[in-house]
Amino acid sequence: MKRLWQVREFSTLMILVLEVAFFTWYLWPTSGGHPFFNVGNSLLILKYSSIYGIAAIGAALVIITGGIDLAPGAVIGLTSVVTGYFFVQADWSLAASAMMGLLVGLSAGIASSWLVVGMKLPPFIATLGVMGIWRGVGYVITEARFYDLSAKLPRNWTVGGVSIDWVPPLVMVTLAGMFQVLMKRFQWGRAVFAVGGNETAALFSGVRVGLIKSSAYITAGVLASISGVVLAVVQGQGKADLANGYELDIIASAVVGGTSLTGGRGSVAGAVLGALIFGVLRNALPQIPGATFYDRVIVGLAVIVIVVMDQVMVRRA
Amino acid sequence: MADGLIFRDVAKSFGAVQALRGVSFAVTPGEAHACVGENGAGKSTLLKILAGIIRPDRGDVSWAGAPLHCDNPREALERGIGMVYQEMLAFRNLSVSANIFAGREIATRWGRLDEKAMRARTIDLLAQLHVPVTADTPMEHLSTANAQLVQVARALVCHCQVLVLDEPTTSLTDAEVDHLFRVIATLRATGVTVLFVSHRLPEVYRLCDRITVLRDGGFVGTFARATTSSDDIVRAMVGREPPTRVPRANTSAIASLPHCPTASIPDGPIRPALSVVGLTRRPMFKDISFDVASGEIVGMFGLVGSGRTEILETMFGLATADEGRVSVDGRRVQARSARDAAQAGLALVPEERQRQGLCFNLSLQHNLVLPLAAKQGARVIDRAAESAAANAQAHALAIKAPSLQVTPDALSGGNQQKVVAGKWLATSPRVLLLDEPTKGVDVGAKFEIHRLIRQQADAGMACLMVSSDLPEVLALADRVLIMREGHLRGELRGDEATEEAVMRLATHDVASVADGGHV
């Protein structure tokens, strides 16, 4: 049995803890309640991080197979539009509208996997194309309008006795747990690692390489769609330009969580922790006076610093 | 003495592994010096230090009286040490000329590349080395032999005084080896010192004046060719008596299998374990038919490019046949993937273990159970069963590893090869296909792998082994099938299978065997 600190995700978790400790100390109030370290703010961080985190699970999967998926931002945007269209325009129930939203990611995943596995396009090019098309369809549908879901959503809404605010983080944690088990205890996960480590050897070993790669892209698409539904509900909007540029934050979350861009190494739990690390940054930086205009710079620096720190910690272990 | 290439107390460790433990020896100027040793003996590390790719922990290397600093690959080149590496360090997408001059381009005063001068020099060199390619041919279109000669050309451009060759003949045919050796002989005549690293003792004996033996990172001794037998060298390499050959099947193995009717009556009515009829895949091979009985080892010999590997891959579902039929135990196999083939009872130990055999991000245990899981179509991993299966193979094959949780890069070549064999034996196949099973493994591991194949055959498995190592084929196989240019040219059994008879069938005409000059 591995010791706790030998587990790969431990160093990512430590970075998150250090980060939270730092901001708690830095933002310590002279009087009154803590502006950062409180239940309401934590919930806010969790809620927004889960949009990135859920999609980052899929990004980690694809990257572990040795591929890359640039489409999740576009998928999230179009999902919000489609969900909004059915919920607001067609007056469907939210659950049925969300189902239609998930079809966006499913279709994007099928398209990517067909291009990568069937047409043998490089994943970067294939998913760049899918990203453009799926983003564009959002504009075609909305024609520069947006769907206002917030008006139709119930106030003080609870699902099974839990406030709606808790649903996105719970979904993220559940999915992360589920995929962590799939990756570690199921043959499918083993095959994902084998394909990313040495595709030829995997093929020679009887692994169904095409099927494994396809399943990764399709899963990533569906997970991005779930992020899209969450975003539509959290923002109360279905809008074509939502989640613009998210793909890079999502990939960064996976990488910060220990996933290697060369394939064969990584974890979905790490990707979710990576998303939380960025979520905390995005939440805390605007609270520091004068830091507002620097936040993108700091997030960029953080990617580099965290990956370097992580490498150092892994080497020590 | 002081002006040769001198290694003094060179030591290097990687983590806990001591790759070199203070090696000292000297190569005198103008000689051809061999450095031999089993895999893991430290030869590659020594060469990397010489080339300036890694720094030694201790000790130094000097050439022509001045020390090499060993921290910069450029320095070694500038001091006249040219390397020809085992694995092709080529820019496959660039032309031959660009490869020869990579990093040392001829440029005008303003930094513009002087393509004309480089092409002219390349054409000169290619003519000098008799390489039948043009200066503009992309590197990826070159055969292994020609790519190797391009590396020699690259060394010559740097006016090398020492030519270091690391296992240069691993994937060359005999004729290509002859050509390479002629080139080396010509260079030696001009005063170039040669350091030759190889597993193949006949070649070492053919080329080199003195032989330095390394074992487990330590220096064993430097021997003069004239006064040392190759058995002595083998003994020095392995540190024990040279292993005897696995008993030849037609003398003892079949005799030891009286209960096995297929072995004694191969043409009888008993269904063969593997039957191939009219297998064709154009343009690689045509109309290949043969049987392999249970308990039999059939060798398939042919020169590189004769279509042997392609036959195995087609049988194994990695490529589609145009025509023909493959049956296992009388049941037709229509494998469209390695998984189908595994389920039909086939197993393939592929030629390139690094590229085709192992996942270097997975532990040995996970590597060992990968085909088994793929064959069974397992869903959930049963960790106890997985661990038991992996341990059983590691034990049966005597895989030397610190634990099964390490990744394959911690293992020597021979042990890596055992892992590749083990992962397929774990599927309990009916038919074992082996492609160059002992390529690049040392003498001791080679013997163990031979014994392993014989054991599997004795247990009733049908084995088909492709190999370019003719002594290996002759020693191990009950029957030899000979391939040439995509056709099966003949079959020799037992005593008919002599080196001459096999080579006669494998090469174009009888005359070329005679003057092909495998010494």
Q: Strands, helices and their partners?
A:
The complex is a heterodimer of chains A (317) and B (519).
Chain A: H1 9-26, H2 39-64, H3 72-89, H4 94-118, H5 123-142, E1 147-148, E2 158-159, E3 162-163, H6 167-185, H7 187-197, H8 199-204, H9 209-235, E4 237-238, H10 246-256, H11 268-284, H12 295-316
Antiparallel strand pairs in A: 1-4, 2-3
Helix pairs in contact in A: 1-11, 2-6, 2-9, 2-10, 2-11, 3-4, 3-5, 3-9, 4-5, 4-9, 6-7, 7-9, 10-11
Chain B: E1 5-14, E2 17-27, E3 32-36, H1 43-51, E4 58-63, E5 66-68, H2 73-78, E6 81-84, H3 96-100, H4 115-128, H5 144-157, E7 162-166, H6 174-189, E8 193-197, H7 201-207, E9 210-215, E10 218-224, H8 230-238, H9 249-253, H10 261-264, E11 274-281, E12 285-292, E13 297-301, H11 308-315, E14 323-328, E15 331-333, H12 338-343, E16 346-349, H13 353-357, H14 364-376, H15 383-396, H16 413-425, E17 431-435, H17 443-458, E18 462-467, H18 470-476, E19 479-484, E20 487-493, H19 499-506, H20 510-516
Helix pairs in contact in B: 4-5, 14-15, 14-16
